[in-house]
Write a structure and sequence with these properties.
Blueprint: H1 4-11, E1 17-27, E2 32-33, E3 38-43, E4 52-56, E5 66-70, H2 73-76, E6 86-93, E7 100-107, E8 112-118, H3 124-127
Length: about 150
Amino acid sequence: MENPESSQNQELIPYIGEGYLIMNVSSASGALPIKDARVHIKGADIQNRDTEYSLNTNESGRSERIALKAPSRSLSLSPGNPYGFARYTAVVTKDGYYTQTFEGLPVFDGITSIQPVLLVPLAPYNSGDFDPANEQRLNETGSAKQ
């Protein structure tokens, strides 16, 4: 649970800067890029709650680079200052895969952040296409039993 006092202090800091975010979506430990994954980004702070984007990934599994509001870069250069970045929530979906949600993604003024996203395929029994009665079993040589 967020401390209400810290939320009130953060409200005083204007988001006059701009940072950038790219989502890099793949599967198989990063080996397979996922095209047309849906990415939904929403502001998680008081200052950026009106910010919202929906976009898709390209054939390389990357979203376009989007500009997002952030506090001034000078705040992130001061030691001990907890408000040197803006926070965003990102939800990544693709049919046939489990949804990934990222809360509190930091965005810094003047910096392009690349967020790796590993999507896990749904197990066949969750897809509705799996019929255990028709499942082929493999024998010891690796060929299908009839």
